Automatic annotation (TrEMBL):
GO terms for molecular function: N-acetylmuramoyl-L-alanine amidase activity. Keywords: Hydrolase. This is N-acetylmuramoyl-L-alanine amidase. Residues 78-235 form the MurNAc-LAA domain. Coiled coil: none annotated. GO terms for cellular component: outer membrane-bounded periplasmic space. InterPro entries: MurNAc-LAA_cat, N-acetylmuramoyl_amidase_3. GO terms for biological process: peptidoglycan catabolic process. SMART domains: Ami_3. Its EC number is 3.5.1.28.
Length: 419
């Protein structure tokens, strides 16, 4: 049995070795997040990532520096990479900051930059050497010694361009595929990257010290989404590698021509992703970075919609974006744009709430006139417009938002009473 499986493995021709490194491990927990330790999140993502490559790329050999919760010294990780003649080394980590509002992904390449804010990250990620037996290994390299720096730069130059290329693909993938916030590609002096004889990056998945991001990254959805983002970057990088090596990948065959999709007439598709009695502002973390959000008040509830399209395929894409953000119960809702509300019903745009009573045409209304003031629970709500169809209500909303009321939203009325 053993012989057979070894043989069948050997028959797969590999032309690329990727070494994936889950940061920290064992007695070195890494950063302590709001929901989990850095070492656990990093390992989980690495195992998912490795399995995804193994499944889709039989020509890639995946080497893990660790597959369990064990302690590894930083030089051991480099040694594993060099012994396996890696074509790419990827170290996975999570960020942490004393400022709990810090969020976003960032990917590092090795570089000896001047003192700047990234030194805080490298200091933290390098600090594990104090748990190691032989700290001298790292002290041999002195970033202030010009000769050592020149020797390093010569070695690093060979891999730097490709390291930056992969780092750039990772950050773009986080933004374009997952809607995450990117802090960009940076360079810093990381022990775990310095000795690698291959393009090498260190990915910080996000800040586990931040409540929202830390909870997300510890969740199944967050870990899966992060893995998929890095995998998409890997896939593209591998394709470029193959192209340089003269290999044509199978998915580059001409694709069948798609028939142009017919837009739905007079209809609009939106993704309903949240229904709650709480009113969140557009920039609120509860909306998980979704930007194109519309909020509709329905009685005592607020309904949150994402996107607006008349193409079914686009609506499906929007739905998967929202689901990846963790709104698993989201669904597509179809609106009849030209359907008129019956009787006295109408749509109005709520653009301001204040404890002060303003007259119509107040300067604070930024030029909006015929404003309806409705007293509610000791506060005054100010509404603009009266529309009978959603189509025109949406146009009114856009006009109001352009006046600077970015958090305005549509409310259904019966006459002059909110429903
Ligand atoms: Zn780390």
């Amino acid at each position: 049995m053993v012989l057979f499986s070894t043989l069948s493995f050997a028959q797969k021709k590999t032309n690329f070795v990727v070494v994936i490194d889950a940061g920290h491990g064992g007695k070195d927990a890494g950063a302590r997040g709001v929901a989990d330790l850095e070492k656990n999140i990093a390992l989980d993502v690495v195992l998912r990532f490795g399995a995804m490559i193994e499944k889709n790329h039989p020509d890639v050999k995946v080497v893990y520096t660790r597959k369990t919760d064990v302690f590894l010294e930083l030089w051991e990780r480099t040694q594993i990479s060099n012994n396996n003649k890696a074509n790419l080394f990827i170290s996975i980590h999570c960020n942490s900051a004393t400022n709990s509002s810090a969020t976003g992904t960032e990917t590092f390449v090795m570089g000896l930059n001047k003192m700047n804010q990234t030194d805080e990250v490298s200091r933290r990620e390098n600090s594990v050497v104090f748990l190691e037996k032989d700290q001298e290994k790292y002290e041999k390299f002195n970033p202030n010694d010009p000769e050592a720096v020149i020797a390093f730069e010569i070695m690093n130059a060979a891999y730097k361009e490709q390291s930056i290329r992969f780092a750039d693909l990772v950050e773009k993938s986080f933004v374009n595929k997952q809607g995450r916030k990117s802090r960009g590609v940076k360079q810093a002096n990381f022990h775990v990257l310095r000795g690698n004889a291959s393009p090498s990056v260190l990915v910080e998945l996000g800040f586990i010290s931040n409540y929202e991001e830390g909870t997300y990254l510890a969740s199944d959805a967050g870990k899966q989404a992060s893995t998929e983002a890095i995998y998409a970057a890997f896939k593209e990088y591998k394709k470029e590698f193959d192209r340089r090596s003269g290999i044509v990948s199978t998915d580059e065959k001409p694709k069948p021509v798609k028939v142009a999709e017919k837009p739905l007439e007079g209809k609009s598709l939106k993704v309903k992703f949240l229904e709650t009695t709480l009113k969140y502002s557009i920039s609120s973390p509860q909306l998980k970075g979704l930007t194109d959000v519309e909020i509709v008040q329905d009685g005592s509830k607020y309904v949150y919609y994402y996107g607006n399209t008349n193409l079914q395929s686009r609506a499906d894409e929007l739905l998967s974006v929202v689901k990846r953000k963790g709104f698993t119960k989201a669904s597509i809702v179809e609106f009849d744009l030209n359907k008129r509300l019956d009787g006295q019903k109408n749509y109005r745009v709520l653009f301001m709430t204040s404890n002060k009573k303003y007259k119509d045409r107040d300067d604070r209304f930024n030029g909006l006139s015929n404003v309806l003031r409705v007293k509610s629970g000791g506060m005054f709500n100010y509404y603009f417009g009266t529309d009978k169809t959603l189509d025109s209500a949406q146009k009114t909303l856009e006009a109001v938002q352009k006046k600077g009321f970015r958090n305005a939203f549509v409310v259904t009325f019966n006459g002059e009473e909110p429903l």
